[in-house]
TrEMBL record:
<dbReference type="GO" id="GO:0046872">
    <property type="term" value="F:metal ion binding"/>
</dbReference>
<keyword id="KW-0004">4Fe-4S</keyword>
<dbReference type="InterPro" id="IPR025192">
    <property type="entry name" value="Succ_DH/fum_Rdtase_N"/>
</dbReference>
<dbReference type="InterPro" id="IPR017896">
    <property type="entry name" value="4Fe4S_Fe-S-bd"/>
</dbReference>
<dbReference type="InterPro" id="IPR036010">
    <property type="entry name" value="2Fe-2S_ferredoxin-like_sf"/>
</dbReference>
<feature type="domain" description="4Fe-4S ferredoxin-type">
    <location>
        <begin position="147"/>
        <end position="175"/>
    </location>
</feature>
<keyword id="KW-0479">Metal-binding</keyword>
<comment type="similarity">
    <text>Belongs to the succinate dehydrogenase/fumarate reductase iron-sulfur protein family.</text>
</comment>
<keyword id="KW-0411">Iron-sulfur</keyword>
<keyword id="KW-0001">2Fe-2S</keyword>
<keyword id="KW-0816">Tricarboxylic acid cycle</keyword>
<dbReference type="InterPro" id="IPR004489">
    <property type="entry name" value="Succ_DH/fum_Rdtase_Fe-S"/>
</dbReference>
<keyword id="KW-0408">Iron</keyword>
<dbReference type="GO" id="GO:0051539">
    <property type="term" value="F:4 iron, 4 sulfur cluster binding"/>
</dbReference>
<keyword id="KW-0560">Oxidoreductase</keyword>
<dbReference type="GO" id="GO:0006099">
    <property type="term" value="P:tricarboxylic acid cycle"/>
</dbReference>
<dbReference type="GO" id="GO:0022904">
    <property type="term" value="P:respiratory electron transport chain"/>
</dbReference>
């Protein structure tokens, strides 16, 4: 149902495949109060007709939770990295320009391949090893003071927006990105995760690690979960410095 016949004007950068040239296609969809970007894309999927009245293929995008938890629907909205599910039409200037994230390779339309980010998380061992042979019972407890800030770091949903905003993440740099550095801090704080703390620190002390961060602060500005990424990076600078001295003097 429209409101006084109001329409939403979208200009979407599309791409038919990884090796295809990109192009812009315009659409107009019925407006509804409290409408978000995903709602507009669903309207196009229901009726894939562009602004010129020509039938076209439905726009492809990713989404899972629709409540800013999964991180899958990251795109550029009017040039800014945003989550499509939590970006409301009423807050945007029209026409609304939608495009895939530029940091990652485009698979099709608004879908990108985030392998670069997940490879970086594997590189820093962003997990806690367990053998899985038997129930270990409840894990060790964190001090409440540590739990409060560690919980904030655990909100990371690997959306990739910090990668998109970071000027040091590009095809000319080996920088692993802000989120993996923050995850090192998170897992090295965990009582069980500390068993591999040295391996994680060493993984961010090589080329492309902590020293490749330019401290622009863009990552914290765009994080939809408001994770204190710059604080984590500062803490990792301190930890790697202390570890390097310890490694030098303690053989």
């Amino acid at each position: 149902m429209t409101t006084n016949g109001k329409l939403v004007h979208l200009k979407i950068r599309r791409q038919d495949g990884p090796s295809s040239d990109s192009y812009v296609e315009e659409f107009e969809v019925p407006y509804r109060p409290s409408m978000n970007i995903i709602s507009a894309l669903m309207e196009i999927r229901k009726n894939p007709v562009n602004k010129d009245g020509k039938e076209t293929s439905p726009v492809q995008w990713e989404s899972v939770c629709l409540e800013e938890v999964c991180g899958a629907c990251s795109i550029l909205v009017n040039g800014k990295p945003r989550q499509a599910c939590s970006t409301l039409i009423d807050s945007l200037e029209q026409p609304i320009h939608l495009a895939p994230l530029k940091t990652f390779s485009c698979e099709r339309d608004l879908i990108v391949n985030r392998k670069q980010m997940f490879d970086a998380l594997m590189k820093v061992k962003a997990w806690i090893d367990i053998d899985g042979t038997h129930d270990l019972g409840p894990g060790p407890r964190l001090a409440e003071e540590d739990r409060q800030w560690a919980y904030e770091l655990s909100k990371c949903m690997t959306c990739g927006l910090c990668f998109e905003a970071c000027p040091n993440v590009n095809d000319r740099s080996t920088f692993i990105g802000p989120a993996p550095l923050s995850q090192v801090r998170l897992f090295n704080t965990h009582p069980t995760g500390k068993m591999q703390a040295s391996k994680r620190l060493e993984s961010i002390m090589i080329e492309g690690g902590i020293t490749s961060c330019g401290n622009s602060g863009n990552c914290a500005e765009v994080c939809p979960k408001e994770i204190p990424l710059t604080h984590s990076i500062a803490a990792m600078n301190k930890s790697t410095t202390a570890y390097s001295f310890k490694r030098f003097f303690v053989k």
